[in-house]
């Protein structure tokens, strides 16, 4: 029997941000999350000795890895972490924590945190609204969220109802 491959998403940090602090923040915000391993640079490495090289962690069971690799690549919104939540309180909490200390609000439930990682904080109902066989519902919901930065579940529910 062939063993199953292990897959995780690796995000490249340019060295100007602390990958270990970022992982700790993310794990503190998402229930069921934890840092699983940290490897550090040694003497003669391209980063300061003792600084994190790779930080492995899980967000609600999904594996991630942050590589503190230096200034060769930059994070962009072309890749983002999507978090589906059930309540407005969850949206508000994550939004506030992730935009604090230099994060940026973007359109349609997107934000960039202080470390440059892009996130989408979305209501769990969004997928059902957008794939509803009644195309008028999905159109109204899309029109509503295109005008938003942080999602407002109550406004989206009103849009869905027409």
What's the arrangement of secondary structure elements?
Elements: E1 9-13, H1 19-29, E2 34-40, E3 52-59, E4 62-68, E5 80-85, H2 88-99, E6 104-105, E7 110-112, E8 118-123, H3 126-130, H4 135-146, H5 153-161
Parallel strand pairs: 1-4, 5-8
Antiparallel strand pairs: 2-3, 3-4, 6-7, 7-8
Task: Indicate the multimeric state.
Answer: single chain
Instruction: State mean pLDDT (0 to 100 scale).
Output: 95
Largest sheet: 4 strands, mixed
Rounded to the nearest angstrom, the distance between the terminal CA atoms is: 54 Å
Order of helices and strands: EHEEEEHEEEHHH
Protein described:
- By secondary structure, the protein is an alpha/beta fold.
- The chain has two domains: 73 residues, Signal recognition particle alu RNA binding heterodimer, srp9/1 (2-Layer Sandwich); 88 residues, Roll (2,3-Dihydroxybiphenyl 1,2-Dioxygenase, domain 1).
- The strands form two sheets. It has a four-stranded mixed β-sheet, covered by helices on one side.
- A hairpin with a 5-residue loop joins strand 7 and strand 8.
- Helix 4 packs antiparallel against helix 5.
- It is elongated.
Keywords:
single chain, 162 residues, alpha/beta, Signal recognition particle alu RNA binding heterodimer, srp9/1, 2,3-Dihydroxybiphenyl 1,2-Dioxygenase, domain 1, four-stranded mixed beta sheet, elongated
């Amino acid at each position: 029997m062939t063993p199953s491959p292990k897959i995780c998403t690796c995000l490249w940090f340019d060295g100007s941000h602390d990958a270990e602090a970022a992982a700790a923040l993310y794990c503190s915000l998402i229930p069921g999350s934890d840092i699983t391993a940290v490897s550090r640079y040694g003497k003669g490495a391209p980063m300061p000795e003792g600084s994190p090289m790779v930080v492995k962690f899980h967000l609600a069971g999904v594996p991630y890895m942050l590589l503190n690799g230096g200034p060769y690549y930059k994070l962009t919104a072309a890749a983002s972490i999507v978090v589906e939540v059930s309540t407005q309180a969850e949206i508000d909490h994550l939004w506030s924590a992730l935009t604090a200390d230099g994060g940026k609000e973007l359109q349609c439930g997107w934000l960039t945190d202080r470390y440059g990682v892009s996130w989408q904080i979305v209501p769990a109902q969004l997928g059902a609204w957008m794939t509803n066989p009644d195309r008028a519902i999905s159109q109204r919901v899309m029109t509503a969220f295109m005008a938003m930065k942080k999602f407002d579940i109550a406004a989206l529910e009103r849009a869905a109802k027409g």
